[in-house]
Write a structure and sequence with these properties.
Oligomer: homotrimer
Radius of gyration of chain A: 40 Å
Number of strands of chain A: 19
Structural class of chain A: alpha+beta
Helix content of chain A: 25-40%
Largest interface: A-C, 84 and 98 residues
Number of helices of chain A: 9
Order of helices and strands of chain A: HEEHEEEEHEEEEEEEHEHHEEEEHHEH
Largest sheet of chain A: 10 strands, mixed
Amino acid sequence: MAASGCRGLFLSAFDYKTEKYVIAENKKVGVLYRLVQLAIIGYLIGWVFLTKKGYQETEESIQSSVMTKLKGVSLTNTTNLGIHLWGPEDYVIPPQGEKVFFIITNFIETPNQMLGYCAESKKVPNGHCRENADCPAGETVVAGHGIKSGYCLKRDRNSTGTCEIYGWCPLNACFVLPREPLLRSTENFTVYIKNFIRFPRFEFSKSNVLDTADDRYLKNCLYDRTEHPYCPIFRLGDLVSWAGHSFRDMAVAGGSIGILIEWNCDLDKGYDNCHPHYSFTRLDMSSAANSVTSGYNFRYARYYKNAADQTYRILFKVYGIRFDILVHGKAGKFNIIPTLINIGSGLALMGAGAFFCDLVLLYLMKKSTFYREKKFESAKNDKSSVRKMIEDKGSEIQIQEDGS
Amino acid sequence: MAASGCRGLFLSAFDYKTEKYVIAENKKVGVLYRLVQLAIIGYLIGWVFLTKKGYQETEESIQSSVMTKLKGVSLTNTTNLGIHLWGPEDYVIPPQGEKVFFIITNFIETPNQMLGYCAESKKVPNGHCRENADCPAGETVVAGHGIKSGYCLKRDRNSTGTCEIYGWCPLNACFVLPREPLLRSTENFTVYIKNFIRFPRFEFSKSNVLDTADDRYLKNCLYDRTEHPYCPIFRLGDLVSWAGHSFRDMAVAGGSIGILIEWNCDLDKGYDNCHPHYSFTRLDMSSAANSVTSGYNFRYARYYKNAADQTYRILFKVYGIRFDILVHGKAGKFNIIPTLINIGSGLALMGAGAFFCDLVLLYLMKKSTFYREKKFESAKNDKSSVRKMIEDKGSEIQIQEDGS
Amino acid sequence: MAASGCRGLFLSAFDYKTEKYVIAENKKVGVLYRLVQLAIIGYLIGWVFLTKKGYQETEESIQSSVMTKLKGVSLTNTTNLGIHLWGPEDYVIPPQGEKVFFIITNFIETPNQMLGYCAESKKVPNGHCRENADCPAGETVVAGHGIKSGYCLKRDRNSTGTCEIYGWCPLNACFVLPREPLLRSTENFTVYIKNFIRFPRFEFSKSNVLDTADDRYLKNCLYDRTEHPYCPIFRLGDLVSWAGHSFRDMAVAGGSIGILIEWNCDLDKGYDNCHPHYSFTRLDMSSAANSVTSGYNFRYARYYKNAADQTYRILFKVYGIRFDILVHGKAGKFNIIPTLINIGSGLALMGAGAFFCDLVLLYLMKKSTFYREKKFESAKNDKSSVRKMIEDKGSEIQIQEDGS
């Protein structure tokens, strides 16, 4: 008996149980529910799957390696250097072709500096003095060029002077930044950008230099948004103007330009449909252009020794444009998990739609009391409820008798 | 007939079908189900939406461009260099203001090295020898300073010596690292950090230098966690102490400090509520501080030519602190897809709750057999089942008769 | 009366309402539904949770700081430099141990260049001329070495010559790249890579240098995929050969190698189970190996002053291998939100399965009309529908009579 009961239980597990539905022949709610269904299906197919590619697993952490190479020479004629030729080995810092590179467009040169004593620049507030006590020996001049020696140097007894300092003398403070960039021809220089990317999750890698491009094309082409969108060679002046600025203005005091390379790859469409997209922006400008945040310069020195084995140096304060190549991208590929998560959540929303339509049917319709009674079947088994049930039956039988 | 059938089918598609429910007047399970519903709604609203902002699409791949500028000068007094002044052009490597920069805090200088023959350092295990055969000519000294010339140099016949090498002589091996950092005033130097970020998906970009800040503020402020949280100028000593270490200790043998800039932007709240948050950590310490992994140094050389056109060089082995600016962040913005996915999955969990309460009702309650019969309506149409149905009906009629 | 009505409404809110099911004793559909349920549960547990770790929140934006240090010396013997010893301070560019570093393996040296006039190289197409008019004074030679002086230098009257330029003379164009890499011993040099990573969301950080490793191990070990997978010291020749190329071939004209460090951390398994995994790839090769995109070289110059205070320089065109350390990774940790999203969407799919089985039951089975009638209860309350209901009852009673 127990065994047959178990067997029955096992067999009944394979009975299909299906939810019982009540057909409410209410066209208003019916149409409403169909509209809700249509909206959810439309959202799911149109927006989630077609527009947002919800059937794809996406990878946003891109690996990127960038190499750059500049071409162009420029001639400058200054008092100190004389006629001087600048090649990429001089005006690109660092010279080895990094993803962040700086192009010298303007400079102030201070030749033949040697360690010694001289007056601090008048531009440094902390270096001003009225007497020797204002210049305590050994103290550093804040934002200045050296260490105070203890003397205050001034023209006459009553004037304000500057502290004497120990440092690289003479200072470069008296020189004025040329209004016209000294290396103005940098505007026409070109940069060749080689970008190798990889999406580690999909083990997909690609380069911005197309395989099909022949040597001659790569030697002569110049990037253009519409004509040559896949040529990896850019004119510096174009880069700045595409970012919405004037190269000549920017070259005077320097600045920073971002070259954004975007890889938006649909890997379901294959290797050849994954292309870089370039855009350009200025990185050092705040919306309210203030002088502290814009501009770009730094100092570097070349050291020499003279016949007496003394060290002297040439100090360059260089102004220029820093190019920062920022690579980002995402790749998508069909994956079952996001697909099913999206379908599942869409189906769950159908349930929410049914719940909403139920509310309308059961509380807002004219015959809602009737629908409520039909939808919710009572399961009380005490006397009174049974009696009610029978009364219901009785009335049904009454109707039956009337109808027959 | 077929046409009217089709029309009927079409019309019936707009009949609203609603699930039939059985009301089990069981307060225990009813309360349980309401609790389950409350828990799910609470989790959905409280945790998913309010705490985790599940209604937002998030972007974690941040684009970042960093520029740095150091200020400060330091004086050193060593036997070889004499009194020497170090400016940013000397102690910052590389000088052009990268996101990774190295500050020299200590150094060992080996002046006037020329290519020639000398004895390998005793510190290099591979350079030890007892006889000339231990120094095969042309072989490189592993982890050493040059190429073996074939001779073993030793004080007397029985002692152990070192191989003669061809290299830059004299070697710097005999010099001892100063216990007190030579450029100890670097502790008070300041670094100005300019960070431009961009969230490509939302086309949102911002800088850590606030627009509202006036020039004077930026020239004089100093970052402080509570007083000046948005000032982009940092004292080097503070950076190290905030990372939990002593600048003076770290300056002797060098180290590496990470400056973490975190951008956690809720773009629904607008542009002005997206601020950087700075934190600091040491990057070269393992939990068990061992001497191999901590410390930071490297060599660089300055090349000169003497009157006889011979090349000589000054070798600097520099110790110092490497600062690595690591930018990360995420941005969130309202998006319908994650919102609906979260709502959908919450609704689906409601179904799971109902399933659980059903189990309680149908198998754990006293009157569970009655509820089972009410919930599951049989749909067998073979003879025996029909008979059972009629018997059920009969008993119902019996009840009816009793009740009437 | 109203109060008691409210109270009744309130109490009825705690009545448990459960869906009414119809048991269709159809084993075919029953088995089908169980199979669908099994498939969904299998997919959820086996694929989503066990394989894809769907119960985890994942973080893919890794913060990484890399330091490198090279060891090894190499001897070269060239006409200009003579016997020259190269240490890391010379052959690593930049020398400070960045995540992208370049190793010189071959070079062309042009000594004693001074600014002056000489003939442009014949290799530069833009420098060719037939008469002085082809060389307008002041114009830059495209992809050349200087500025045209206005003269065309040619051997005799009818031949083609090259323009005279003002630049750093003599040019290096006549030198040929050595077929055998001059610094061939770089193959045996080692690089020590220190990588510190951090997952900001989980505040988890780790280094690739293991804590347990003692000093001696780190001084002597060499990375090997199977023997020493956690040793952070790599032989350069191995790096290239693991990337599938020959170091000697690559060393001639240069190239670029990516060292990929992958951190795949299951943070539920604890700190010790998070290890780096190294892999190696070539970054500058397109599938069709063309000469423009592969190879890596750049120029740098060392500046000197002679006794007459004239500047001269040594120009190095260096060829070598650029190593780019690319770190990526993801961390996963248990989180309730993705867990519940996955469970929820799985449950919603169950609903889809039930819908599919309903279709089979209601439209494809033999007795589908019967099942349809059972599943869908009509809720019309107009006369005709009631009559139909009663007729159904009548037929049932008929059956009852037959059966009794």
